[in-house]
Design goal:
Elements lengths: L10 H11 L2 H14 L8 E4 L2 H20 L3 E12 L2 E12 L3 E7 L5 E7 L3 E6 L4 E6 H7 L11 H6 L8 E8 L5 E6 L6 E9 L4 E9 L4 E9 L9 E6 L7 E10 L18 E5 L5 E3 L8
Parallel strand pairs: 7-15
Antiparallel strand pairs: 1-8, 2-3, 2-14, 3-4, 4-5, 5-6, 6-7, 8-9, 9-10, 10-11, 11-12, 12-13, 13-14, 15-16
Length: 304
């Protein structure tokens, strides 16, 4: 698979993808962030404010959703498939996905026979990557990696596990406005983050009757939209339906990214050890340094 043919976009984005292609294992870690960064200038779907009576009722529902989400399982084990649908370019990649709140993720990309090609893990601060084709291991700080690909700091959040699960985490955020949705899908709750360094606010599309989060729009401190995520959910016996699809829309050229989850397990108990990679013998060991540069490290096997 030629990963540099996945994205057709502006020269700046293509430049980021070409650099990512030099270290293909890292490409699958930064791909969703690269795509979210490409969010185009879509119109604002929130319209007129709701009434005072509706504000009180929706605020109470929002608090109940927060309490419910806080009690839901904190881990996800699933198959994940990333679909990129762009002009003249339809691509997909599949693998195994683990997530543990608040920000630990693992994605093992496999070929059609189920054999691992790449593995990437991150705890929200550091990352590791293994490329089985190149017999290469790369590790370093996630912030270095994001600087290398010019990904906004606002996407380096301690809460991105919640974004991927379609959960609320906004304890401490202040409700700034509640507005109608132009398509009648629900209401938009605008929250301001007083303590986030890079994110200023988010807009959440809620379905109050079903107590569902349908979409999340993240806005940085310059007022720019840095990510727009829409959610579909599967079924569940409890009150915590797992997310089954994340869609990123409003991209240049009418492109679209879907992340589909299947064979979902939410009852697994994971730990930090599940989000570390052991370096196989005879692999080249590299580390990211200042400004994301990759340097040769010690060729030693990681300890458990």
């Amino acid at each position: 698979m030629k990963v540099n043919s996945v994205i057709v976009a502006s020269p700046g984005i293509n430049g980021m993808v070409r650099r990512a292609n030099l270290r293909s294992g890292l490409f699958w870690l930064v791909l969703p962030l690269l795509i979210m960064f490409m969010t185009g200038c879509a119109g604002k779907p929130w319209t007129t404010p709701v009434t005072d009576a509706e504000t009180a009722s929706i605020t109470q529902t929002f608090k109940e959703m927060q309490q419910r989400d806080d009690s839901c399982p904190r881990c996800l084990d699933a198959k994940a498939t990333l679909f990129w649908d762009g002009p003249g370019e339809d691509r997909s990649v599949s693998g195994f996905f683990l997530l543990m709140l608040p920000a630990s993720v693992k994605f093992v990309v496999t070929n059609p026979l189920g054999q691992p090609l790449y593995a990437v893990v991150s705890n929200g601060q550091g990352f590791q990557s293994i490329n089985t084709t190149l017999k290469q291991h790369i590790s370093g700080e996630l912030s270095d990696l994001m600087r290398q690909y010019d990904i906004p700091e606002s996407l380096l959040s301690a809460h991105w596990g919640y974004w991927l699960l379609g959960r609320l985490h906004e304890q401490g955020a202040m409700i700034e406005a509640i507005s109608q949705d132009e398509a009648g899908r629900g209401v938009w709750v605008t929250l301001r983050y007083p303590d986030e360094e890079a994110l200023a606010k988010c807009h959440l599309l809620m379905q109050p009757d079903g107590k569902k989060l349908l979409a999340r729009v993240l806005v940085d401190r310059q007022g720019d939209t840095v990510a727009t995520l829409s959610y579909d959910y599967g079924t569940s016996r409890d009150n915590c339906p797992p997310v089954s699809r994340i869609s990123v829309t409003g991209l240049p050229y009418g492109s679209r990214l879907n992340i589909d989850f299947s064979e979902i397990l939410t009852d697994r108990v994971l730990s930090g050890a599940d989000f570390r990679l052991k370096v196989p013998a005879n692999y080249e060991v590299l580390e990211t340094g200042d400004r994301g540069r990759v340097t040769v490290g010690s060729d030693q096997e990681d300890e458990d």
